[in-house]
Design brief:
- It is a single chain.
- Helices cover 37% and strands 12% of the residues.
- It is of the alpha+beta class.
- Helix 1 (13-25) crosses helix 4 and helix 7 runs antiparallel to helix 8 (234-249).
- The chain is globular and about 55 Å long.
Amino acid sequence: MTHATPVRRDARPGSLLNLALALAAGGLPVLPLSADKRPLGNCPDCTGNRCGGRPNMKTPGPCACSAPCHAWAAATTDPHVVTLPLWRRAWDRAGVIGYHPGGAGVTVVDLDDAAAVDWARASLPPTTTVATTRGEHWIYSGTVRSVNRVREGVDIKSIMSYARWLGPGTGAMTAVPALVHEMVEKKPAAGPAPRPVAVPAPAGGGRCPHRSPTYLERGIAMAEQRITAATSGVHATVYATFLAVLSVHGRCGCLTETHIGRLFAAAQAKGESPRHCTVAWSNAATALGM
């Protein structure tokens, strides 16, 4: 984990790209953030939020852009991506570096003030600690669902979230404690409870394109968010998302019924019926000759 690597803490604009490359080389998925910590769109269609992405861009916005250029979904460890011309221009505009904790296999307990820090010291086991402007980031090994305000002044940032890089921190990293798991689970997920739908996963046999264990997870998470972010044309969005997932992950045998269930749950939370989900999945598979 990159937080254990002694990388120079330097926020001057001219040094951001080199620091981002060093962090990415250490396994930390990075992305450029503005000085006020908002993610920057990294393609022409999304520059200046022209695509209609959400103002705080904590999750990918509802735009038609095919690139993962919003927030945590943009984070990457690929030096070729980090140095693309569009990204270089984003780094020129950036004020700080962000990263995707879940993609790095960690969880950040974001303590927003002194009172939250006092609570953590009394309630959580010691781990890697990074000072922030008003409080601290406590960084644990392992991932959980990201949830804001699990208690006053405390946010949990991991899967489908981003955090600001503030240096390697101090102290040995320990595993996500049981209390953090409990706090996350007590926060209900948005939307109605979905009905389970049994759809067999596609048979494998093709070449697996997955570059790392997080590649498939990231793809499924992005697909879930694309469905969740739909504000109109939900039927079309669900079908297009199923088609995209199957085209990338449907032939290598890595896609499981659990992954499919997550996509169906996201679709049902937007009002799709189990039958519509099944039909859309079947139509997408047929269109791809599967």
